[in-house]
Amino acid sequence: MSRPAPSPIYTLRGAGGALNTLHFSCQGGDTPLLFSGSGKGSIHIWNLNTRRALKIVEGHAGSSVIWVSTLDCVLCCCILQGRDMQVCLWDLSEGRCEVVDSVWTGSVGFCQCSTLETSPGNFLLAFAGEQTEEIKIIELPSKSQVCTLVPDAKLGMVMCIKLLQVRSGPLLVAGYEDGSLLLWDVTQRSRLSLVKAHPEPVMCLTFDTKRLRGISGSSEKKLSSWTLDRQNNLQGCVTLVNPGVSQLCVRGDGKLLASAGWDHRVRLFGWKKLRPLAVLQYHTDMVQSVAFSDHQDPRQRLLAAGSRDQRISLWSIYSEGGDTG
Q1: Which residues, in sequence order, are CB contacts of 169 under 8 Å at separation 6+?
Q2: I need a labelling partner for 20 at 20 to 30 A (CA). Which of 5, 79, 246, 248 fits?
Q3: Quick one: which of 199, 219, 223 has its CA closest to 263?
Q4: pLDDT tens per residue across span 231-270
């Protein structure tokens, strides 16, 4: 049985559009931050102490912002992806607000970028390319091209990607329009594994490098859990009450999984056994993004959910030492 659902501890309003993406930065100094990107092209940087917008950045010429991240743990360099086919790096230090570099992707889809720090100050940036099934990976800040990944088979448009670091080096997991998941070796520029996880397009995925296990969602009424190894194993699935998942996120301690639902709800599962724990009901429209905060103190960690209703809900769901299953 699911546990009684909590209520949000507070909400953030005034984003000016549907919330497409959320990103926490809570380890740089005394001010925990939440970045949000909206369908109207605005990026809000929320001060979680005052619960107000510290800064509002109008980027991408009014085009929808579909992904936001930071390249370090302080309010210094923010990286944004918009529907104008641009990925822009913003310098937000010392009150500045200016684009210092940009990358043209050529992609007309909604596939969010992914970054991976390979060494101090150096990052890989993966993004969907101009061609339907193409994924490009470059190195930042040099913008030198690392590789272009195109599957041999016709899998349709690339829908979602995730860079991850394992002992052998950087890998990339990609979900495609035909429901396939493909594991790439970035260094060798080669395909390692392919699995058909869904009958519908893969809408979202996330991966836990500690357990070497991932999970993905689509427009159907289930989540698929998998390991991408030589056996192409599908470990199991979770049946949902209503169809459609926008985003999935595993908490940093590996105990909780959150899903953003098309049915306006956020669902929590124990990551170990995928046991349903709670259904969070607050929003009045599709939930499009979920993110766990990265506070150093686990007791301060939050879950944020962003919706098409233009509101961000924040939830405190920390359970010290509890086995969520």
Answers
A1: 185, 186, 187
A2: 5
A3: 219
A4: 545 555 788 888 899 999 999 999 999 999 999 999 999 9
Tell me the backbone φ, ψ of residue 61, rounded to 5 degrees. 50, 40
Sole residue written with tokens 């993966």: 126
How far apart are alpha carbons 179 and 225 in whole angstroms? 13
Q: What is the end-to-end Cα distance of the chain in Å, rounded? A: 13
Q: Is residue 31 part of a domain?
A: yes
How far apart, in whole angstroms, are the C-alpha atoms of residue 158 and residue 61?
A: 25
* Enclosing H/E stretch for 260: strand 256-261
Of the pLDDT bands very low, low, confident and very high (cuts 50, 70, 90), residue 124 is very high
Residue at 54 is within a domain? yes
Residue 21: which domain range?
17-104
For residue 88, give the CATH number of its domain: 2.40.10.480
Q: Do the domain assignments include residue 40?
A: yes
Strands 42-47 and 52-58: antiparallel
Distance CA 58, CA 56 (A): 7
- Gyration radius (Cα) of the chain, Å: 19
144: exposed, middle or buried (Cβ count in 10 Å: 0-12, 13-18, 19+): exposed
pTM: 0.91
Structural domain count, the chain: 1
Residue 185 CA to residue 207 CA, distance in Å, equals 15
Asked if residue 238 belongs to a domain, the reply is: no
Distance CA 134, CA 138 (A): 13
Q: Which residue is associated with the tokens 């390991």? A: 227
**Rounded CA gap, 157 and 148, in Å?**
15
